[in-house]
């Protein structure tokens, strides 16, 4: 039978651990990039909400009825 020796098994485990560590590092980089993008988009949405509220306020100030067009 061909039982792997203990050093071979340890080497295989170390290789697997190194691959897992690399994968975790790559996933962490992706996660950080996504959080930065989420933060950017959150700030953008907040600014757009502010602009929309300002536009609605300006539109609501002129509650006087609009004069009829000149051809009436």
Compact description:
By secondary structure, the protein is mainly alpha-helical.
The topology string of helices and strands comes to H
Strand residue percentage: under 5%
Mean pLDDT: 90
The tally of helices reads 1
Q: Could you say which structural class the secondary elements and strand pairing correspond to?
A: mainly alpha
Distance N terminus to C terminus? 103 Å
Task: List key phrases describing it.
mainly alpha; 1 helix; 78% helix; single chain
Kindly describe this structure:
This is Protein SlyX homolog. It holds the Pfam family SlyX. Belongs to the SlyX family. It comes from Kaistia geumhonensis. Residues 53-72 are annotated as: Disordered. The chain is 78% helix and 0% strand. The chain has one helix spanning 6-61. With 72 residues, the chain is mainly alpha-helical. It is built from 1 helix and no strands. The chain has a domain at 29-57. It starts with 5 loop residues before the first helix and ends in an 11-residue tail after the last helix.
List the topology elements.
Blueprint: H1 6-61
Family: Belongs to the SlyX family.
Protein name: Protein SlyX homolog
Region (Disordered): 53-72
């Amino acid at each position: 039978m061909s039982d792997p020796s203990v050093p071979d098994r340890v080497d295989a485990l170390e290789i697997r651990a190194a691959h897992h560590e690399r994968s975790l590092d790559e996933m962490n980089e992706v996660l950080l990039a996504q959080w930065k993008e989420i933060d950017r988009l959150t700030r953008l949405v907040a600014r757009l909400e502010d602009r929309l509220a300002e536009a609605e306020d300006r539109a609501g100030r002129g509650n006087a009825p609009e004069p009829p067009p000149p051809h009436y």
